[in-house]
Amino acid sequence: MPGMWWVVGVVVLATVFSAYLGWTAQRVERLHARAQSAERALDAHLVRRAAAAAVVAEHGDRVELYAAARLALDAEPGDRESAENDLTRQLRALDLDPGDPAVRALIATSRRVVLARQVHTDLVRDALSARRRLLVRLLRLARRHPRPEYFDIVEPTMPDLPPPLTVPGPTIPPETPLPVQAV
Amino acid sequence: MRIGIVSPYSFDVPGGVQNHIMDLAEALIGLGHEVSVLAPADDDAELPSYVVSAGRAVPLPYNGSVARIAFGPVSTARVRRWLKNGEFDVLHVHEPLSPSLSFLAVLSARGPVVATFHTAMTRSRALAGLQSFLQPVIEKITARIAVSELARKVQVEHLGGGAVEIPNGVAVAKFVSATPLPGWPGTGGALGFLGRFTEPRKGFPLLRSAFVTLAQERPDLRLLVAGPGDPDELYADIPDKLQDRVEFLGLVSEEDKARMLRSVDVYVAPNTGGESFGMILTEAMAAGAAIAASDLDAFRRVLDGGRAGALFPNGDAAALTTLLGDLLDDPRRRAELASCARTVVATFDWPSVANRVLEVYATAIEATDGRVFDDEWS
User: How far apart are alpha carbons B272 and B206 in whole angstroms?
Assistant: First the structure.
């Protein structure tokens, strides 16, 4: 009964294919959801950074920095990247007082922006590469999800402050021996 | 936070990755987090209280050395059970692309996954070939950490993803509190070297020639050497009359390493290349030794451009001799270097490194759906 085996074969193939299809659809779904969460997180951290910069600007009467922070907070989606870059430039030119808690908060939020952006970029790349797959394009599996976009800004790093000493005990090394006498 | 960490290698055998994981776990516990470490181990092995055994490890040649790892259906079942019982806020795997528990954990997990890459894998080309096969696994990783610039490069070039560079930490407290070896450093000056002295890139011959020159004028100058290798080879090129002034400790334990670094006036790192970070320098800094190091980029970075340790031109034995002579004659300069080193090394201290890792955890949690995030770890 060779015809029977045909049917079995086709059924098996169809099962495997539909399982793969379901898995791929789920994967596309998950990757887009993650890229979206990462975008929201990045947005939140950018807002926090701008707010922290505004506080520093107010403390030090820095008009330009305050303006840059306001512009970053109010920017429309299309102008946001350049507004954030302006703010980064202003922040890098700052003369920082490590003792000021507002400055410490600003540096901490900047660090979080760097991390959030790194993760966002990676997750967007993963989602885009899933969208490029042949099966995904043919069956338009990604049609319900908006296309994730990279957020193209310069690395918003700021100089790191030395952390407070965490180890109790001598900060100056113990008594050094007498100098060696050259003979 | 509840944190699950996966070690690919067994704790029975000491190694860089295992030490990193233990120090990180202890630092996180010290910061008030709940940590569980899953690692391959014999069921009767003695383990720290925070380690969960995933069953016996099998020796397997991997990436140029023999690693003791666990892989297979039994391990998979244990990984899944650990994940289910753990209810972790974040999963942190180490070396997830080796065939190991880490790989299995990434496969079985959903949610915020952080991965740390330690080695710049030499087989990265083979890895790049496997990329499309590994993609579904790589995709499950939310955030990546590389412990060195080199490891980060491999990430970017071969796996097409970024990584946050967070260097290895150093347990500063352990080094600060170590007691020097009996009779050291003494009053005649003591130099120290730790590493594989037979390996040309470690630059031991430079130090040997500097020591031989200096020892002729300084009757009490001594040299303390630790590291794997044959003592006959060490002593072969040292003149007979100087041999009793060179002490060889062989391969030392972590505790003895700290004691050894506390026993010298000047720690010498004459490496001529191949260093990507300079872990040993951070340890010498923590121990409060003055440092003389070659001006490799990695060393220059760790030593804050020469403020936290004196630099000499790479490969220049005469310059090293002069530098060591100056340092031995100038205890104030040594004290200045050491005190500056103590400030710089705080950046590498485990609690502050662990805080940076926690920021990555928080970022990963935020980027994973279904989690509420608040800011308590920032």
Answer: 9
Q: Which residues are CB-neighbours of B366 under 8 A, at least 6 positions away?
A: A37, A38, A40, A41, A44, A116, B373
- Are B140 and B121 a contacting pair, CB within 8 Å? no
Distance of alpha carbon B232 from the chain centroid: 28
Nearest CA in chain B to A106: B378
Contact state of B288 with A176 under an 8 Å Cβ cutoff? no
Query: pLDDT tens digits, residue range B132-177?
Result: 677 777 888 888 898 877 777 777 766 667 788 888 888 888 888 8
Is-contact B91 B109, C-beta < 8 A?
A: yes
In chain B, what residues touch A172 (CB-CB under 8 Å)? 335, 338-339, 342
Provide the 8-state DSSP code for B170: B
**For the segment B180-204, what is each residue's pLDDT rounded down to a tens digit?**
888 787 787 888 898 888 777 888 8
Beta strands B290-294 and B266-269 are: parallel
What is the distance between the alpha carbons of residues A50 and B131, in angstroms, rounded to a whole number? 39
**For residue B279, which phi and psi values (nearest 5 degrees)?**
-55, -45
Q: Is B136 on the interface with A (CB under 8 A)?
A: yes
